[in-house]
Amino acid sequence: MKTLLKNGTVVSGDMSVIEDVLIDGEKIVKVGRNLEAEDAQVVDVNGKLLFPGFIDGHTHFDLEVAGTVTADDFETGTRAAIAGGTTLVIDYASQDKGGHTLKEGLEKWHKKADGKCSCDYSFHMSIVEWNEETQREIQDMINEGITSFKLYMT
What we know:
The protein is of the alpha/beta class.
């Protein structure tokens, strides 16, 4: 389904300008003045600010820490994110202590998140035990889409 947002103030990193935004499904396909699309639902957004989706690069959903669990899980946390205009969260997946692997940690976080999120999500990998097995797994994590790591040094 296509949606044409007419006459909104499009806000980017370097300017704000009144333009139209054509969306097809979940993708912005065109931005410009006086756009037309016969098959689109037209919404007049005059006087409204149109921002790109925000990214929250540091979340802790459903995280057990110090004898408690963080207040939000992936369902409630991503619902709140969407309400505030955030369309991508990057949560900290964590390897458990006691000889557990990074793969086990990533699988655990996928079980917490998959099918429960209202927005896009990814993971940083938290490394709580460094050993030869963990070192070997780094490339495997990169192959799984993990591009950042947090190493606890205390």
